[in-house]
Amino acid sequence: MTTCSAPGKVYLFGEHAVVYGEPAVPCAVERRARVTVEPREDGRVRVDAADLSLDGFTVTWGGSIDDRPDIDAPAPLVEAAMEYIEAAVRQAREAADRPDAGFDITVESAIPLGAGLGSSAAVVVAGIDAATRALGTELDPEEVARRAYEAEYEVQEGQASRADTFCSAMGGAVRVEGDDTRTIDAPPLPFVVGYDGGAGDTGELVAGVRALREEHAFAADTVETVGDLTREGERLLADADPEREPGDELLADLGELMNFNHGLLEALGVSARSLDAMVWAARDAGAAGAKLTGAGGGGCIVALDPTDETQHALGYTAECEQSFRAELATEGVRVEAA
Ligand SMILES: Nc1ncnc2c1ncn2[C@@H]1O[C@H](COP(=O)(O)OP(=O)(O)OP(=O)(O)O)[C@@H](O)[C@H]1O
Ligand SMILES: C[C@@](O)(CCO)CC(=O)[O-]
Ligand SMILES: [Mg+2]
């Protein structure tokens, strides 16, 4: 039996624009998906994803991939989860050169689904690592990231960048620009997350930005401007001392860029009333900056605030269902038990 875990992430800058070759800086945060894998002799795959929940929905699903489960849960949710896990299994079988390997798989995750914190990437990254190790093959985290990207790309029908999977596999802060992926130094940033309890449809939101970009030159310019502000943010991080808590000046400069980034994402049509309400609650509470994170449409915002004020204020914001501090996860995918 092998258990691996992988973290979720927030975007400091650059989601959506990263799909069109602009740079982005996601940061891994200490909320993890854990995947436990036990090889099976009979070549079948059984999956237990006990906390598959969305919008307050909780389903218990124990089924086999060859034999679709008959459960009372939103079919598209179960289908999507099966697809991510099937894609991870395919990658693991190929990497270990065991095309007929079977598995019992258990998924447990503390990352809300479809909310911009990279739950899909974390499940796929931890799943590939656990399944290959269960077969006696060890991949380095870069290889896990590459295979996890292939899996996400396939399930999301081409609407995926390398950002989420690379960040989850490597941990810490990373920068992704097209196929160029690297880890970068960053100080311990005081992230606060607000979650509206909902979710956005990543594929639909990416398609919406694509259409706007094709229709209007100014929308294409908006995407490029996100790239410009991301590059400026990267310079701020490069000049900072990664060992020290960031000072007020650095937080103010990063926060200003986050606010600008949120405004541009809003212009690109991927924000939501609840996300804007949480962003404003954070700013009113004194956060250095706040923006939506991930695909948008609903889900999470991320703010920078070393004090408790933002988390406290979000706790009293009607649109916010949950708020929590998110520590930078310096470790990416890791073995929990083998
Ligand atoms: N605990 C889990 N168990 C099984 N499947 C999961 C789990 N968590 C996430 N998934 C899969 O990932 C899907 C959500 O992925 P999606 O890319 O839409 O959102 P996200 O990764 O949470 O957010 P974003 O990509 O915006 O950062 C779920 O519908 C499900 O298929
Ligand atoms: C919206 C997007 O940029 C981030 C989703 O977390 C899509 C992607 O990069 O795959
Ligand atoms: Mg995802």
Give an overview in words:
- Keywords: ATP-binding, Cytoplasm, Isoprene biosynthesis, Kinase, Lipid biosynthesis, Lipid metabolism, Magnesium, Nucleotide-binding, Transferase.
- Residues 251-310 form the GHMP kinase C-terminal domain.
- Belongs to the GHMP kinase family. Mevalonate kinase subfamily.
- The chain has 338 residues and is α+β, with helices and mostly antiparallel strands.
- It has two domains: 2-184, 2-Layer Sandwich (Ribosomal Protein S5, domain 2), CATH 3.30.230; 191-326, GHMP kinase, C-terminal domain (Alpha-Beta Plaits), CATH 3.30.70.890.
- Helix content is 40%, strand content 25%.
- It has helices spanning 75-95, 119-134, 141-155, 163-170, 202-215, 217-239, 248-267, 273-284, 309-315; strands spanning 2-13, 25-40, 45-49, 52-54, 57-59, 62-64, 102-109, 173-177, 180-184, 191-195, 289-292, 300-304, 322-326, 334-337.
- A six-stranded mixed sheet has the order 6-3-7-2-1-14. It has a four-stranded antiparallel sheet with strand order 11-12-10-13.
- Helix 5 packs across helix 6 (217-239).
- The radius of gyration is 19 Å and the shape is globular.
- (R)-mevalonate (MEV) binds next to helix 4 and helix 5.
Strand arrangement, major sheet: 6-3-7-2-1-14
Count the beta strands.
14
Assign the CATH architecture of the largest domain.
Answer: 2-Layer Sandwich
Shape: globular
Quickly name the level 1 CATH class of the largest domain.
Alpha Beta
Helix-strand sequence: EEEEEEHEHHHEEEHHHHEEHEE
Strand content: 15-25%
> How many H/I helices?
9
Instruction: Please summarize the sheet with the most strands.
Output: 6 strands, mixed
- Amino-to-carboxy terminus distance: 6 Å
The helix fraction, in percent, is 40-55%
Q: Any idea what the radius of gyration is?
A: 19 Å
Question: Which small compounds were modeled alongside the protein?
Answer: adenosine-5'-triphosphate, (R)-mevalonate, magnesium ion
Poorly predicted runs of 5 or more residues: 53-64, 68-72
> Could you please say which CATH topology of the largest domain applies here?
Ribosomal Protein S5, domain 2
Integer tally of domains: 2
Class of secondary structure makeup: alpha+beta
Mean pLDDT: 92
